Amino acid sequence: MENVLVAGANGTTGKQIVKLLSETQDFNPVAMVRKKEQMAQFETEGISTVLGDLEQDVSHAFKNIDKVIFAAGSGGKNVIGVDQEGAKRLIDASKHSNIKKFVMLSSMGADAPEKAEQLQEYLKAKQNADEHLKNSGLNYAIVRPGTLTNDNATNHIQLKEKLSQSGEISRADVAQTLVRVLNDDTANKVSFEILNGDTLIGEAVEKFSIK
Asked: 69 — phi, psi (to 5°)?
């Protein structure tokens, strides 16, 4: 069983990722949280936790860690410090710890932030983090969803390297996709976009990985 460090575990999407990982037979989640009081909610469920602030050194969080999911975000409050530099800090620590795979929760539009009508600063920060990951030498998967909603999981998505339209997708379906691409034989050194769709998540990821 592989230990997966989840950065942003206390977030809305992060909590769903941790829950999904805890239900698998292959992965054991390690929830990285910023405040001590955030640990109890995971520990009562028997989930390992580690304190880690993305604006500080996070290398201590990597003890016995095999893979990483970055699902942290500042909610627009500190896009440079958290979404960009925090991600870079985690990538560098991952490289130093010989992590097998780094899964990045990015955003549609991060490949061309200058074209966006809004959130340009955020998308630029995500672009910089994504590029840092691509150039790190690590194995990675960069997942770029459309607008996130709190709708229930549909277990279905549309997935392409570059989708021709914008749209929405539930955090639940994003969480499932992120967990799915952790597998060694799936989505290695690639980035792709996802939205609500008609294809089962596992099938969509598998088809993309075969290309």
From this structure: -120, 125
